[in-house]
Structures are given as structure tokens and as C-alpha cells.
Amino acid sequence: MKVNRLIYRSGLTCLLVLFFCLLSFKALGAEGRPKNIILMIVDGCGAEQYTLARWVKGAALSFEAHLTGAVRTFNTDSVVTDSAPAASAHATGVRTSDKFISMGPHGKETPGLPASPPDLRLKPMATILEGARLKGMASGIVCTSRVTHATPAAFMAHTTSRDMEDMIMEQAVYQGVDIVLGGGMRHLLPKAKGGSRADGEDLSAVLAGRGYSIINTKSDLDTFRQGKAFGLFAGSHMEAELDRPVFAPDQPTLAEMTEKAIEILSSSPNGFFLMVEASEVDWACHANDPAHLIGDLLMLDKAADIALKFAERDGNTLLIVVSDHNTGGMSIGNRGTGRTYSKMTPGELIDPLKKMRLTASGIWRKAGGSKGRLKELLNQYWGIDPSNEEMKRINDLASDYGSYPATAIGEVLSATRTALGWTTHGHTGGDVPLFAYGPSRPKGVLDAPALGSLMAEALGLDLKALTERLFADAEETLKGFKVELDRGEKMNPVLRVKAKDIAASIPIDKNILKIGSEDILLEGVAVHVEESGKTYIPRQAIEAIKHLPAAK
Ligand SMILES: [Zn+2]
Question: 351-370, pLDDT tens digit by residue?
Fold first, then answer.
């Protein structure tokens, strides 16, 4: 009897323990997975730039308390990465080749760097944005560059060159992203409508047909309340933060675009993925321009503050602030402070920088090629009266720098008039700081692709499986059909699939399957890879073609 009761009691205890284990496991699961991800990429920024921004701000940056680790940035070709493979690593969880936009590596090995995965060679790879969209989540892109520039492109498109911006815009338009805010109107419109699309297509008509609002000004963005939108506020890139009031006051700021994107996307019942890029921190560092750097980095700080406050209120949002690589090799301290650094006051560092009210390229543009005017403007906007020697060096260097003459201003005057040093006009290879807040936040020192994989896993996405679902080799999977790429219409190739009584076609870079007079909208875009001659289409298209009555 007693023994039975004991067994009964211990059995009950076991059940209770199991019950509470399950309960707590479930709670942990709910807590462990975010509903939303906001990924903020500070292009070309290292630890030293954040420190500088903190000194100039006079307070901690909004996100710096959430430092959780660092990211190793190299790609398959180089220890110093460019933005395209760097952003592709975040977007797909795979390390890839120089200039590639979410496309598997070319396969040429670089001694000393990890071998690239052979099964993904020159193959489009599903991105976290595509995965989020297929899961029914809302998706958004915010940047201050053209939305077709390397970093935003890596989330929305697949090409073997970051320079194929017409193609990138086309894929972005047919991708079904809910909110796209930034610059780059020229890649949306044909020449006849003031754009620069070489294929003559008017993608604004496609957007309108798919229910998008097209927004061009800050005031239109302010009044936009719901639905899908492409907000393109400049033909090319948007203005630098310091230059915006002077050259384009009707453009919104990065913080305003971030706030609007969060406002719209957060109404999605299934959560959202948003990528925000402070695009121009990188260009500021390429140009060694402290004014441009501080203006845009402090604006990123405001945008991150908005994102962090949303994440804190929401409790179910993973916020990540990270860079794709460092640029410029900026240091607090330069050749001129080699003997005096141990007595550097905050004023010595900050005061010359606080006088800078326009970027070097803004000053150069305003000068309009006049050397005398350039000297006056440096006085007016940077509080500097350059010596004759400094002006001579600026003008000599400017002619060496071709399309980026203003680079000479930052290079010469940073060294002589500030306490900042720079080592290069290119990128640098150091690890970059990782800031993260919210459920599933990544910690430690991670490879860039591992950070991409962790974000996808946090949303419960299997990007490998999604790559198989979105990008099937058309020729290989449609055996028994005649499959060929029709280049009849220049710049707008179409994949044609034929059998006895079947004629289907799939235009490249779009998400449409045409059978007879019927258009079937696909869950992803068709991608043709020139280097391999292969065309990739969603498995959904393969199934639709194989199940046509005439195909059976
Ligand atoms: Zn970059």
C-alpha cells in the first residue's frame, strides 16, 4: 500500500516536473525567437568612428550599451572586403566573391582563405528578406544611397556584379518588398521619363499596377499612412546629412525614413524584417572627410535610437547594429599629435570638427571649379583659412582624384587642421563592433556569414531550403522540354519553355510565368547568370509547367 502510494506520488511529481519543464521550455521558445528583426548596417564604420561620434555628441551613442561582440569581415577573394560580398554574407549567411550580390561564389580559390561551397557556385542564394516575405512577414529597405547600391541590393536582388543597377532595380520591383526608401529614381524610369534605364522599361507603371505608392518628398512620406511604397527621393544618391538643408531640403532624413518604415511595417500581424543602411558613412571615410562622417554617423545614432525605443516597447524585436567593414583607417590622433597625444583635451579634438557645417564634396560643388571661391567656402563652412601651401596641395591632389576631387580637401585638411588620422581612401580589414538588443541576440566574435545565419535562424528560416525552392536550374529540372533563352528583345531576355502543345515564357528579373494569355505571379524572380549560361526560376514555375494538361 505504502509502496504503491510512494510510486503514485513520485509518478505525480514526475508529471508535474515534466509539465513545468514543458511550460518553461515553451516560454523560453517564445522569448528566444523574435517576431521582428531590424538590421542596421553602418557602412564602412569601425570602433574609432563610434568613439569620435560619442566625443562630438558629448554623450553615449544610443545603441552602444548593447555591444555584444565583433564581426570578422573578409570574403572569399580578399582579407579586405567590399560592400557587395559583405552585405551578401549578412543577407544569405554565405561568404561569397568580390562584387557579387547574393550570388554563390565564382569558385576560384584564394590561398589562405576558406574554400567556397561548390554546390552554390554562381547560383543565386535566397536572402533573409526573401525568406521573411515567403513566411508572410512584411519587409522593408531604408538607405541613403541609391536603393540599388551594393548593401540594399544584396537583400533584394541576385547578380554577379554590383554595377548592374538597372537589373537590381527590376528584381527589387518584382520582389514584392513592402517598403523601399532611399535614392535611385534613375534606375526606375526610362530615359523618356527622365530616368536612365537602358531597357526603356517604366518600372513606376509596374509599381502603380501592383498597388504601390510612389513617394518623392519628405512631406509625401509624412502623410503616407499604410500600404506598400517605393519612396525614391533622388535620381541618384540622397544628400549627406550636412548637405541636405542646402541642396535638397525636401529629402527626409535617415531617422525619418526609419521611423516611417517601422510605423508601417509594425502593423503586419506576422512580423517584419527591416534593413536600414547608413550608406554614406563609408563614402565619408573613403573621402577622409570628418564633416561628412560625423553628420551621417550622428544621424544614424538618431535612427538607431528610434529603432531601439521601438524594440524596447515591442519586446519581441531583435535589433542589430553592425558594419559590413571599416573604411579609411580613421584614428583619433595623427602624425601631428605624435608627441602631444598624452595632453589632448576634448576641445582640441572636437572644436575644429564642430565648425564644419558642410561636407567636403558639398563645398567642392558650391565652389563650381573656382579656386578662389573654394578658399572662401572653406572659411565659411569649415572655419578654416587655408594657407597657400594647403590650397596648392588640395588643388594638385584634386586633379589626381578624377571623379572624386573633393577627396583632396579631407586628406589635406584632416592632417593639418584636426587631430584625426587616416591611412587609406579604401576599405580596411579589421573586425567591426557588433551591437544587438532583443530576443536571440548574437554574441561573441562571429564571421559575417554566421551573423547572417543566426538572423535567419532567429526567424525560423532555412535559407538553404529556400534557395532550392526559389532558384531551380530551369534546364536541368525541365528535362523533356525545349528550354532556351530568347534574347530577341535587347536587355529584356525571356526564358522560353516549349513542348508539343505547350509554350510558356518567363521574363528574366521578373516574377511572372506566362502561359498562353495567362500571367501567373511567382513567389520569386527569375535570374539568368551570364557566366554559367544558366537560368534559375522558382520551383513553383517548374511545377506549374509540368502539371499543364498537355505536359502529362
Ligand atoms: Zn560597405
Answer: 999 999 999 999 999 999 89
Residue 309 CA, ligand 1 centroid: distance in Å:
26
Q: How far is the CA of 43 from the centre of ligand 1 (A)?
A: 4
For residue 63, the CA-to-ligand 1 centroid distance in Å is 20
Q: With bands split at pLDDT 50, 70 and 90, how would you rate the model's confidence at 5?
A: low
- Residue type present at position 350: I
Ligand 1 centre to CA of 150 (Å) is: 8
Residue 22 has a pLDDT of 44
Q: Crossing angle, helix 388-400 and helix 371-382, to 10 degrees?
A: 110
CATH topology for the 472-551 domain: Copper Amine Oxidase; Chain A, domain 1 (3.30.457)
Positions of E strands within 368-511: 420-421, 427-428, 432-437, 444-447, 472-473, 482-486, 494-499, 502-507
Residue extents of the structural domains in the chain: 40-331+441-468, 357-418, 472-551
What is the distance in A from the centroid of ligand 1 to the CA of 501? 50
Cell of 457: 535562424
pLDDT tier at 199 (50, 70, 90 boundaries)?
very high
Give me the pLDDT at residue 213, please. Answer: 98
Residue 286 alpha carbon to ligand 1 centre in Å: 10
